[in-house]
Amino acid sequence: MTDSKYFTTNKKGEIFELKAELNNEKKEKRKEAVKKVIAAMTVGKDVSSLFPDVVNCMQTDNLELKKLVYLYLMNYAKSQPDMAIMAVNSFVKDCEDPNPLIRALAVRTMGCIRVDKITEYLCEPLRKCLKDEDPYVRKTAAVCVAKLHDINAQMVEDQGFLDSLRDLIADSNPMVVANAVAALSEISESHPNSNLLDLNPQNINKLLTALNECTEWGQIFILDCLSNYNPKDEREAQSICERVTPRLSHANSAVVLSAVKVLMKFLELLPKDSDYYGTLLKKLSPPLVTLLSGEPEVQYVALRNINLIVQKRPEILKQEIKVFFVKYNDPIYVKLEKLDIMIRLASQANIAQVLAELKEYATEVDVDFVRKAVRAIGRCAIKVEQSAERCVSTLLDLIQTKVNYVVQEAIVVIRDIFRKYPNKYESIIATLCENLDSLDEPDARAAMIWIVGEYAERIDNADELLESFLEGFHDESTQVQLTLLTAIVKLFLKKPSETQELVQQVLSLATQDSDNPDLRDRGYIYWRLLSTDPVTAKEVVLSEKPLISEETDLIEPTLLDELICHIGSLASVYHKPPNAFVEGSHGIHQHSADQFAIMKQYFSVLQVWLPATKAKGLEIAGTFSRRQGHMYMDMTFINKALQHMTDFAIQFNKNSFGVIPTTPLPIHTPLMPNQSIDISLPLSTIGPVMKMDPLNNLQVAVKNIIDVFYFSCLIPLNIFFVEDGKMERQVFLVTWKDIPNENELQYQIKECHLNADTVSGKLQNNNIFTIAKRNVEGQDMLYQSLKLTNGIWILAELRIQPGNPNYTGKKKTNATAFSYKLMVHIF
Amino acid sequence: MIGGLFIYNHKGEVLISRVYRDDIGRNAVDAFRVNVIHARQQVRSPVTNIARTSFFHVKRSNIWLAAVTKQNVNAAMVFEFLYKMCDVMTAYFGKISEENIKNNFVLIYELLDEILDFGYPQNSETGALKTFITQQGIKSQTKEEQSQITSQVTGQIGWRREGIKYRRNELFLDVLESVNLLMSPQGQVLSAHVSGRVVMKSYLSGMPECKFGMNDKIVIDKQGKGGTADDAGKSGKQSIAIDDCTFHQCVRLSKFDSERSISFIPPDGEYELMRYRTTKDIILPFRVIPLVREVGRTKLEVKVVIKSNFKPSLLAQKIEVRIPTPLNTSGVQVICMKGKAKYKASENAIVWKIKRMAGMKESQISAEIELLPTNDKKKWARPPISMNFEVPFAPSGLKVRYLKVFEPKLNYSDHDVIKWVRYIGRSGIYETRC
């Protein structure tokens, strides 16, 4: 059967002919005609005028013809809403068909017809289909809810479809579960704070069960959804990780990447010293490497993600640099990404191999790639000091090739090398100067000028060289002009006698003949400096420059964390947050990213309490946490001294909450130079009490074999909130009234885009309990209580106006002045 | 999720266009054509963002498949879906070509309707799809048949239907490996790995439960612990360390994770059971020793020796050595001991072909390359010498130990199944720099 003939009709009066054929008596003819219509539609012809004729063909028991008509309907119903109604009856009838395939087809198609009037009729059939006995119909209906929500969100809520969808998470069929999860995830993106998915341990368990049984696509939906869950403790995080890890061996790379995403996120929550943490890290590397043997497009996605992973956790892939070596036949986009990762993984251990590779790449054909390879050599020099010499000689070899863009790129990176290792490689300046004439790119010209200016005293003809650039001063780019100005001023300061004229010339060019305000300003500043106080000028212009950093192009840490939450998605490919390229996105992901950030605060961000410089090489970083009803002080001890440390002990000064350690410091082995140890010190509040200022201040003394050191830190108040801080409703009411107004404090929380339920959920995690909630004049009022370890109760009223991100809060307490201050700290 | 899917021919004419989301307009079709298909330069990325719309594309021969979205979709999933779409189309009508697509456009629309719902990929196993998407028109299915179809499409074992019967239960296992090498001119291995696939063709009745075993080091070591020390020593030598492996979705991954056993109910017919990768103790079937000498500015002398490095009783086939020549080559003279060698000007290479070569042998080619004098300052990039071959063993050392079949409901046992195993090692990217 050849259908290609339908593409070829191109005569005049085509529409007219089609119309006739569509109304032909013979069924076969009609089918042929519909095919022609679809073909015309595909190539972009407007065949909407045939609407009534096509719809007439809908009443048929031929499934193929029916599907074609549906396809047409989906395309044109929107442009002919009135006539689309004609199709409704047929849909409703099909939804009752004994054949589940037809029921599903009808509900699937109806959801794609974006006409308000039709959607009204869709509700009843959809409700039935959501409870259909056949899983095929249910899984189709689940997606249909998402479609309907896209057309009319309010209606979906009013009709209770969201609840039905939530029920489907417990469905016995894994594919139904997967589609329900996909639909809910998407819907909840448009309601960022609705907590629609309501991920709780029971639901999570259901999802994890379905994960083992559903299709590869379903597994992706479920994993992507899981990554938005915040486990309540380490144990839960670990148990989810254990059930997700097998997915790393799936043949579908998207399943693998989504599993990696879940694991990367939950790793943050696992204690770093546990065996499991180490095992999990090891398990992540092989699947990532395997992704590179896939098709090039998937390789590209994988590489973009690996780039993020390497920045977040370099230890995962540090042994695997060889797999990122470029193959001759790799597509250019794969080559460029591999190169990026190679530089990130370059270290003293592998630098020889890396350099040999880079040298190889610098002779390839693709200009971008070659340039990047040259740049990479420079970055290796800066990153691994031991290799600098070899890198410089490699760069010199490349300059000898005289390939224009290679030379220019090499000069740019050599400038950076000069900055990193001053007074080491200046002997090569002569070689660089030979290539002065071939430089035509602003970057390279600026780099060369900078070098000449910086080392003017060693270059005999520096003045001539710089003068040669002055000729076409106004044709240069701003970057070159600015550098040239500075370079000549430097030269003048170094050799004032011979270059007076030159500096006059450049200053007048910059200040009088230029329109560029930056250039003029800089010119005037120099001029004034030179004319008033040459000594100061020298101090300013020839001051020592700050060192340049070893790592370049690092993604900023908060963005990196956000992107890690998006592993596998477009955001991770673009290295941009979703709202940078998606219209009106603020979805669940972003929301989860900030929760992620909050969690991190409590789980992993350590503050440096005692810097090594103040404690003869001992550095202590730490944080406080509350886990399973106990308080802990989590600390990392790092030995930055040259000798080992033993005999550790810790003591606290008296403090406001009577905090004392319940065990001695658990460091039993000597701490070797450059070694670090993570410990968790259990605390209790049964010690002596003394009021501190600020209230949560804690003074700590740590002793080791070298000396005793003191530092102080602030204890976050939320670790004092106890688990039984939920006050009885009645007691709350009475107490609230009893507390005098002078014990009341009002405050505002600004810019908090959460709704009442999410807020109370979040607070509950910190042992602040919601006693009651009521709605007064459109505002949500939350009444809350919390109890401190010392038995003080604090009551709060929180007023949330929908749409107003600023909350108003009132706090009352029955304790004395002591509590006042306390309240100030809580929020 | 995926907002739309377009298929174009090499000229950029649309052959198939299916829009799933309202935010994708007809103009998206043209945007991709103008910005990617008709773009002057080479494709710099498989993902293109044009006016806040993202386009994912793959190319099969001269056909472009593009998925379009405005959302932050799972990018890996979109590409995997496009590959799957290609597989499904190939399974239905063979090669993906303009003609085949035009001939089957109704079928393609029907498939797209089924496997992508509102942009969410649905079950896309051809085994299942072929039960109800046929171009023969709908057969009058009985109620049982219908519910069987739907339960298969949505079920746990979506890749196999019930009630398959064969007179002869038979299965074929192919261990297909491609060995990749990058060697320095001095003969140092810069990188080498084997990527292998186990492809299974199964013609088994019922719903057979299969268990596959190979000489995986982890498994053998584990068993070795239980057995005598002698056993462990013996088997330990023959086992291989697998860096990583991935499985067809029929394999129970959690079982592999906990016990490292590979158990599954296979799809009917041909499919890829697993992929794996090894980097340790690879048998490199050939060694290439290049010698390039520049004689003045207009002449190059090249000598290449290849040595086969496997059992003398085995024969390698389809050996091809490709020696790149500079762009300004004017003439080449070649002498080779074995096989045929030719200079192919259009490919800028000397291609040396040998039909067969036994193990532990060596052969040599020498060539004189005349160059036209040029004033091109850029040096010749000296692409690596690449090699192709096929050998009848697995360069990774992988051995199939068993494939057991259990079908409790039907009365045939593991012994009744006829099993065939074949090993083929091919060159992947097998390059030696010169």
Automatic annotation (TrEMBL), chain A:
<dbReference type="GO" id="GO:0030131">
    <property type="term" value="C:clathrin adaptor complex"/>
</dbReference>
<dbReference type="InterPro" id="IPR026739">
    <property type="entry name" value="AP_beta"/>
</dbReference>
<dbReference type="InterPro" id="IPR008152">
    <property type="entry name" value="Clathrin_a/b/g-adaptin_app_Ig"/>
</dbReference>
<dbReference type="InterPro" id="IPR009028">
    <property type="entry name" value="Coatomer/calthrin_app_sub_C"/>
</dbReference>
<dbReference type="InterPro" id="IPR015151">
    <property type="entry name" value="B-adaptin_app_sub_C"/>
</dbReference>
<dbReference type="InterPro" id="IPR000225">
    <property type="entry name" value="Armadillo"/>
</dbReference>
<dbReference type="Pfam" id="PF02883">
    <property type="entry name" value="Alpha_adaptinC2"/>
</dbReference>
<dbReference type="Pfam" id="PF09066">
    <property type="entry name" value="B2-adapt-app_C"/>
</dbReference>
<dbReference type="InterPro" id="IPR002553">
    <property type="entry name" value="Clathrin/coatomer_adapt-like_N"/>
</dbReference>
<dbReference type="GO" id="GO:0006886">
    <property type="term" value="P:intracellular protein transport"/>
</dbReference>
<feature type="domain" description="Beta-adaptin appendage C-terminal subdomain">
    <location>
        <begin position="721"/>
        <end position="819"/>
    </location>
</feature>
<keyword id="KW-0007">Acetylation</keyword>
<dbReference type="InterPro" id="IPR011989">
    <property type="entry name" value="ARM-like"/>
</dbReference>
<feature type="domain" description="Clathrin adaptor alpha/beta/gamma-adaptin appendage Ig-like subdomain">
    <location>
        <begin position="602"/>
        <end position="712"/>
    </location>
</feature>
<dbReference type="Pfam" id="PF01602">
    <property type="entry name" value="Adaptin_N"/>
</dbReference>
<dbReference type="GO" id="GO:0012505">
    <property type="term" value="C:endomembrane system"/>
</dbReference>
<dbReference type="GO" id="GO:0016192">
    <property type="term" value="P:vesicle-mediated transport"/>
</dbReference>
<dbReference type="InterPro" id="IPR013037">
    <property type="entry name" value="Clathrin_b-adaptin_app_Ig-like"/>
</dbReference>
<dbReference type="InterPro" id="IPR012295">
    <property type="entry name" value="TBP_dom_sf"/>
</dbReference>
<dbReference type="InterPro" id="IPR013041">
    <property type="entry name" value="Clathrin_app_Ig-like_sf"/>
</dbReference>
<keyword id="KW-0813">Transport</keyword>
<dbReference type="InterPro" id="IPR016024">
    <property type="entry name" value="ARM-type_fold"/>
</dbReference>
Automatic annotation (TrEMBL), chain B:
<feature type="binding site">
    <location>
        <position position="344"/>
    </location>
    <ligand>
        <name>a 1,2-diacyl-sn-glycero-3-phospho-(1D-myo-inositol-3,4,5-trisphosphate)</name>
    </ligand>
</feature>
<dbReference type="InterPro" id="IPR001392">
    <property type="entry name" value="Clathrin_mu"/>
</dbReference>
<dbReference type="InterPro" id="IPR022775">
    <property type="entry name" value="AP_mu_sigma_su"/>
</dbReference>
<feature type="binding site">
    <location>
        <position position="342"/>
    </location>
    <ligand>
        <name>a 1,2-diacyl-sn-glycero-3-phospho-(1D-myo-inositol-3,4,5-trisphosphate)</name>
    </ligand>
</feature>
<dbReference type="GO" id="GO:0006897">
    <property type="term" value="P:endocytosis"/>
</dbReference>
<feature type="domain" description="MHD">
    <location>
        <begin position="168"/>
        <end position="433"/>
    </location>
</feature>
<keyword id="KW-1003">Cell membrane</keyword>
<keyword id="KW-0813">Transport</keyword>
<dbReference type="GO" id="GO:0008289">
    <property type="term" value="F:lipid binding"/>
</dbReference>
<comment type="similarity">
    <text>Belongs to the adaptor complexes medium subunit family.</text>
</comment>
<dbReference type="InterPro" id="IPR011012">
    <property type="entry name" value="Longin-like_dom_sf"/>
</dbReference>
<dbReference type="Pfam" id="PF00928">
    <property type="entry name" value="Adap_comp_sub"/>
</dbReference>
<keyword id="KW-0254">Endocytosis</keyword>
<dbReference type="GO" id="GO:0005905">
    <property type="term" value="C:clathrin-coated pit"/>
</dbReference>
<feature type="binding site">
    <location>
        <position position="355"/>
    </location>
    <ligand>
        <name>a 1,2-diacyl-sn-glycero-3-phospho-(1D-myo-inositol-3,4,5-trisphosphate)</name>
    </ligand>
</feature>
<dbReference type="Pfam" id="PF01217">
    <property type="entry name" value="Clat_adaptor_s"/>
</dbReference>
<dbReference type="GO" id="GO:0005886">
    <property type="term" value="C:plasma membrane"/>
</dbReference>
<feature type="binding site">
    <location>
        <position position="340"/>
    </location>
    <ligand>
        <name>a 1,2-diacyl-sn-glycero-3-phospho-(1D-myo-inositol-3,4,5-trisphosphate)</name>
    </ligand>
</feature>
<dbReference type="InterPro" id="IPR043512">
    <property type="entry name" value="Mu2_C"/>
</dbReference>
<dbReference type="GO" id="GO:0016055">
    <property type="term" value="P:Wnt signaling pathway"/>
</dbReference>
<dbReference type="InterPro" id="IPR028565">
    <property type="entry name" value="MHD"/>
</dbReference>
<dbReference type="GO" id="GO:0006886">
    <property type="term" value="P:intracellular protein transport"/>
</dbReference>
